[in-house]
Amino acid sequence: MIEAPNSNITEDFAELLSAVFSKNATNDHVHQAIARLKSSMGEMSLTFSGHAQNDAHEFLRFMLEKMNKELNRSPLTNQPYTEFKVPPNITALTKIVSK
């Protein structure tokens, strides 16, 4: 499997959704967004490069795994995401404010 550093499946997928649901989108814009997503997927895995027919389930699974990996990375340090722990005094403060 090839890791393409410039490919960002999440951004390509977001652009595709934006194109599909935009009231001003043209068919050209949607087709370009689809081509960009397909190209990024092909850069990350030789299975999806070219024009061979692939299993939709395999494509979706691979895409979701890559998106999960991209979204769970810290953008500044390229380190795995760590969950923010809320200090105990913050929860007490929110109880006071909500009263």
Gyration radius over CA: 19 Å
The number of helical runs is: 4
Give the termini distance in whole angstroms.
54 Å
> Helix/strand-derived class?
mainly alpha
Please, how many domains? 1
Beta-strand proportion = under 5%
- What's the β-strand tally? 0
Helix fraction bin: 55-70%
In short:
With 99 residues, the chain is mainly alpha-helical. The protein has helices at 9-21, 27-44, 56-71, 88-98. Helix content is 59%, strand content 0%.
Layout: helices, strands, pairs:
Elements: H1 9-21, H2 27-44, H3 56-71, H4 88-98
Helix pairs in contact: 1-2
Write up this protein.
There is one protein chain. 11% of the residues are buried. The protein has 99 residues and is mostly helical. The model is unreliable at 1-5 (pLDDT under 50). It has four helices and no strands.
